[in-house]
Amino acid sequence: MDEQEIRYLDFEGRRLAYSTYGEGPPMVFGPRWVSHLEEEWDDPRQRAFFVEIARTHQVLRFDRIGCGLSARELEPRPTIESESRQLEAVIGTTGEPAVIFASSCCCLAASQLAVRNSALVSKLVYFGGYATRHDIPDATKQSLVQFIATSWRLGAQMLAGLFDPHAGGDEIAEYTRMQRRAASAEAASHFLALDLNADARAMLPRVEVPALVLHRRGDRTVPIARGRELAALLPNARFVPLTGDAHLPHRDDQRELFRALAGFLQGDTHAESDDASPLTSRETEVLRLVSTGMSNREIAATLVLSEHTVHRHVANILRKLAQSSRAGAATQAARAGII
To answer: What angle separates helix 80-92 from helix 106-116, to the nearest 10 degrees?
Structure first.
């Protein structure tokens, strides 16, 4: 199948547009801030990203009510609760639990759904997410929202450059155009106000589904400290820092992202099916992170262990697998189906 299939469902009396691509267990991508199913699919980089995901999963995407191909009405005003119900409605079309890929502000609605109806969520992947933007002063938040409301063209251009700092002029112009096609100035400002002022810190400790928190080290839209805070509040999360500075998952080098994603989505199955593995469950978890290129210090921060403990686990892994290097151990374990 070369093209996505766009469908519509009735969401509380308003049209909700969603698309499907590929086959397999469902992975639902919650929308970032403003989105447009057709415009994003026409972007070769975004399409390539989703095609790669579709090698193992059916990809579902949707436009939040108020933008894109969904109903553009803004009354009642958007809330995190209503957006979690939109996510729930899209997952409901699959007839089975789904992996949620929650990018940026979508982490708020995805977390709320995982608390309210965890049976629908098999796993959670957070990318460039946050629990709260308390790092931004209230006056700055108000100024940003007002700027978007009154100078949407310039605001969209500013954000395009912030989302991908290394984008060229033509790329920034194209992403600016996409944002303006996706939403009106009024809608964009409402969404920005909602996303900047929401606070999920009290809710996140109740998210019990397995979670992977991915964050690029140089992200200028949502600093990596916000991602670390998010991961620390989740009771069952792994934190994996990625190289690069783009806030958009389909930009920058994606090899680390896909390695971490594959380890998270497939690792548990491998561990359960390979009873002959010489590694303990903790050693297997450490080796999965080693395979993504993480240092002992990064692994320690991710698993909330001391660096000395991680060093000991790595030494045990090398001894048990009869390997002299971390790369050799990761390669052998992958071939043996241990990770």
So the answer is: 70
Q: Tell me the domain boundaries of the chain.
A: 5-133+200-268, 275-335
For the segment 83-110, what is each residue's pLDDT rounded down to a tens digit?
Answer: 999 999 999 999 999 999 999 999 999 9
- pLDDT tens digits, residue range 190-205? 999 999 999 999 999 9
CA dist 153 → 115, 146, 148, 162, 176 (Å): 37, 13, 8, 14, 7
DSSP state of 182: H
Distance set, CA 230 to CA 132, 233, 265, 285 (Å): 8, 5, 20, 20
Please enumerate in sequence order all residues whose Cβ is within 8 A of that of 102, keeping only pairs 6 or more positions apart, or say none.
Answer: 30, 109, 110, 111, 124, 125, 126, 127, 129
Grouping H, G, I as helix, E, B as strand and the rest as coil, residue 274 is coil
**DSSP run (H or E) holding 98:** strand 98-103
CA dist 284 → 176, 214, 268, 310, 337 (Å): 44, 19, 10, 12, 11
Greatest pairwise CA separation for the chain in angstroms? 64
φ, ψ of residue 21 in degrees (nearest 5):
-155, 130
Question: Helical H runs in the chain?
Answer: 37-41, 44-53, 80-92, 106-116, 138-150, 152-163, 169-182, 185-197, 224-233, 255-273, 281-291, 296-303, 307-321, 326-335
Looking at CATH, the fold of the domain delimited by 5-133+200-268 is given as Rossmann fold (3.40.50)
Q: What whole-number distance in Å separates Cα of residue 2 and Cα of residue 226? A: 37
Q: What's the fold here for domain 275-335?
A: Arc Repressor Mutant, subunit A (1.10.10)
Q: Which amino acid, 288?
A: R
pTM: 0.81
Helices 307-321 & 296-303 angle (0-180, nearest 10) = 110
